């Protein structure tokens, strides 16, 4: 069901405010970041995104409040490394709000992947496959601790075939980067044969814990009104790291294991 045109205008306003704030902030660092001294007119893809949202009657999946939670982080951290699970009506917006940064999208639906890339070929996106199904969610939640390769102290992703929650066969660009911001708004999770977001949630936490660079990892999870998202978020992303909640969006800020407190034992041996 489409939202009224007024909703489009408010979301477009958020896009415009955030994107042009980022562009203007880049110019203040012209000595150390010469690449970003360009004005908005030098960013044709950003301009295309702005026109798209200003003229479309189809709005992003998230509400203005939910988008604003992520926008607040991107205002501080962009240009950054931003990993987004899912392509959608909001992909151009996330791309634009991280202008000058690295934004990578992962999409499981091959038809939707082709549709979005045909309309926006400048997006960096990859079609990926998942090993999980929603019908397995309860079993995966009960059994993951029995698989030693899922354990937090040894958790890794690339090539980890034994842990079904580990996204083991993603494009190398995912493994080769440390992601400042991760948005989980896919894969599908509303019917039994869908992949569900169990592995995306687990893998996002593994990436955040393994971070070597400065700063924490901001992780956003959408659709937390659903049982699987909420259950797996509390198991792996942890209530203690939740710093925001707006509508159906939860915001976590996860420090790497090297900076986690050991007041209640070795942090490397537990997720939460």
Automatic annotation (TrEMBL):
GO biological process: xylan biosynthetic process
Cross-referenced InterPro entries: IRX15/GXM/AGM (IPR006514), SAM-dependent_MTases_sf (IPR029063)
NCBIfam families with a match to the protein in the record: A_thal_3515
Protein origin, superkingdom: Eukaryota
One GO cellular component, as annotated: Golgi membrane
Keyword annotations of the record: Membrane, Transmembrane, Transmembrane helix
Main location: Golgi
Native species: Rhynchospora breviuscula
Subcellular location: Golgi apparatus membrane
Protein name: Polysaccharide biosynthesis domain-containing protein
Membrane topology: Single-pass membrane protein
One of the Pfam families matching this protein, by short name: IRX15_IRX15L_GXM
């Amino acid at each position: 069901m489409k939202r009224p045109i007024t909703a489009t205008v408010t979301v477009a306003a958020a896009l415009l405010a955030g994107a042009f704030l980022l562009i203007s902030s880049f110019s203040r660092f012209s000595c150390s970041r010469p690449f970003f001294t360009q004005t908005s007119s030098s960013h044709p893809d950003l301009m295309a995104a702005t026109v798209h949202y200003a003229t479309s009657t189809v709005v992003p999946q998230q509400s203005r409040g939910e988008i604003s939670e992520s926008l607040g982080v991107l205002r501080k951290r962009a240009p950054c490394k931003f990993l987004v699970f899912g392509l959608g009506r909001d992909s151009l917006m996330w791309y634009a709000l991280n202008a000058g940064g690295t934004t990578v999208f992962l999409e499981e639906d091959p038809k939707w992947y082709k549709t979005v890339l045909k309309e926006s070929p400048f997006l960096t996106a990859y079609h990926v496959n998942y090993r999980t199904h929603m019908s397995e969610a309860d079993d995966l939640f009960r059994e993951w601790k029995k698989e030693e390769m899922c354990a937090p102290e040894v958790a890794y992703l690339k090539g980890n075939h034994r842990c079904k929650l580990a996204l083991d066969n993603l494009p190398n660009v995912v493994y080769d980067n440390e992601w400042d911001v991760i948005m989980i708004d896919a894969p599908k999770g509303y019917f039994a044969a869908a992949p569900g977001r169990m592995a995306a949630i687990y893998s996002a936490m593994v990436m955040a814990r393994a971070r070597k660079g400065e700063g924490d990892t901001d992780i956003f999870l959408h659709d937390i009104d659903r049982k699987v998202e909420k259950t797996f978020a509390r198991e792996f992303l942890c209530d203690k790291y939740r710093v925001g909640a707006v509508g159906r969006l939860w915001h976590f800020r996860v420090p790497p294991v090297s900076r986690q407190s050991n007041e209640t034992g070795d942090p490397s041996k537990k997720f939460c």
